[in-house]
Specification:
By secondary structure, the protein is α/β, with parallel strands linked by helices. Strand 3, helix 2 and strand 4 form a beta-alpha-beta unit. The radius of gyration is 22 Å and the shape is globular. About 3% of the residues have low confidence. Bound molecules: iron/sulfur cluster (SF4). Iron/sulfur cluster (SF4) binds next to helix 6.
């Protein structure tokens, strides 16, 4: 078997940057990368920089220089990444620069430069488990690979077609995690709603009872464990409608992460997106009529080759109508080996940036309005971290690391992993502020 790709990691700066480093590392480890302790043993080095004060800038630039001299292949992230020219002027040979908290971007930069090893067994059940810190939430990977061929993506060529884990195995792992104290399960894969298609939805056994390897059956079974269950990477196939009542009943979190990627049918066709012909706005309306509290998160790509101003206008109209709760946006950038690289009419960089900014401005305004409407409401939250002045928690609408937080002021003696009932006292574009109404 080929040996796993090896990453070196240098983390500079404040505790926040350290948390970012931990997140990047845990994700990379979960994907099968080895993290090594010397520059010489690494295939690639990631430097997480600090750029707060001149000394920190200096230290960061030195660290990048050292990593380049001793390894040669360096990706830079962190606060100094917000000023990429400072880095590239001094070190033009860095492979990629990403900004602070651009956690997804760093991970995809690593993928581009050093592909994760494809081993279905390691991929499905990494030796360290799929759990990331902190202890009270855990990622549950239900399948690997993907049967789609989106033109901007190389995952199918790296990881192969959809390979679902048997349902009994997934449920056993989920059950063990909950028994070990995990309070929130984050269901992940490349295509969660396709779960079981490759197994022909075969029947497995869990707790002595037959269960089918089908998305709805899986979600229903996970919902019986008593933990929060959050669904990521769900494509809007028609059968997704079946899980919305489970959300309305409180069996699983009223949260769907659906990577819509665009709102223009023409661009979606160029992207060869799954379910591109679906009337997604009608589906969102129907979902919300069943489960009004449903929080929908999504990611989008702007500046895809061939995207016209009219397509972009359709995307903005789509978002205005869809009023998604959580939105991420990437400017299209070619990935080596992706079919989209051969498409004509590339969008100039400055147009991509301008569309990205316009899109995010609208998304932020929608988010701010939706969060402002929550002021005065009471809700249960899960505490992730406790500081001197506030505790950082998440509501049912917030996935860890990618969504907003609920900042609890005067949290008293809360600890990470605690539930707390709070009253929302304030909101900004992405986060809520709250006070305790009851602890558990
Ligand atoms: S659905 Fe598309 S973007 Fe997602 S993994 Fe499959 S090919 Fe890639």
């Amino acid at each position: 078997m080929a040996s796993p790709p090896r990453i070196g990691f240098v983390s500079l700066g404040c505790p926040k940057a350290l948390v970012d480093s931990e997140r990047i590392l845990t994700r990379l480890r979960a994907e099968g990368y080895d993290v090594v302790g010397t520059y010489e043993d690494a295939n690639l080095v990631v430097v997480n920089t600090c750029g707060f004060i001149d000394d920190a800038v200096h230290e960061s630039l030195e660290a990048i220089g050292e990593a380049l001299a001793r390894n040669g292949r360096v990706i830079v992230t962190g606060c100094l990444g917000a000023r990429p020219e400072t880095i590239t002027e001094r070190h033009p040979s860095v492979l990629k620069v990403t900004g602070p908290h651009a956690y997804e971007e760093v991970v995809s930069a690593v993928h581009e430069q050093l592909a994760p090893l494809h081993d279905p067994f390691v991929d499905l059940v990494p030796p360290q488990g799929i759990r990331l810190t902190p202890r009270h939430y855990a990622y549950l990977k239900i399948s690997e690979g993907c049967n789609h061929r989106c033109t901007f993506c190389v995952i199918p060529s790296l990881r192969g077609d959809l390979a679902s884990r048997p349902i009994g195995e997934v449920m056993l792992e989920a059950e063990r995690l909950v028994q070990a104290g995990v309070k929130e399960l984050l269901v992940i894969s490349q295509d969660t709603s396709a779960y079981g298609a490759d197994l022909r939805y075969s029947t497995g056994f869990w707790g002595g009872k037959p269960v089918k390897a089908r998305f709805t059956d899986l979600v229903r079974s996970l919902g019986s464990l008593g933990a929060w269950v959050r669904l990521h990477y769900v494509y809007p196939y028609p059968h997704v409608d079946e899980v919305i009542p489970l959300m309305a009943e409180g069996r699983v979190l009223p949260y769907l992460d659906v990577p819509f990627q665009h709102g223009s049918p023409r661009v979606l066709r160029l992207m060869k997106r799954p379910a591109h012909a679906e009337d997604t706005l009608a589906r969102i309306r129907a979902w919300r009529s069943v489960c009004p509290d449903l929080a929908i998160r999504s990611t989008f790509i702007v500046g895809f080759p061939g995207e016209t101003e009219q397509d972009f206008g359709l995307l903005l109209d789509w978002l205005r109508e869809a009023r998604l709760d959580r939105v991420g946006c990437f400017k299209y950038s070619p990935v080596a080996g992706a079919a989209a690289n051969d498409l004509s009419d590339p969008v100039p960089e400055e147009v991509k940036q301008e569309r990205h900014d316009r899109f995010m401005e609208l998304a932020a305004a929608i988010s701010a309005e939706k969060l402002a409407a929550k002021v005065g409401r009471r809700m249960r939250v899960l505490v992730d971290a406790v500081g001197e002045e506030a505790a950082i928690a998440r509501s049912t609408a917030d996935a860890p690391e990618i969504d907003g937080v609920v900042r609890i002021i005067k949290a008293g003696r809360l600890a990470p992993g605690d539930w707390a009932d709070v009253e929302i006292t304030g909101a900004d574009a992405y986060d809520l502020t709250a006070r305790i109404s009851r602890r558990h």
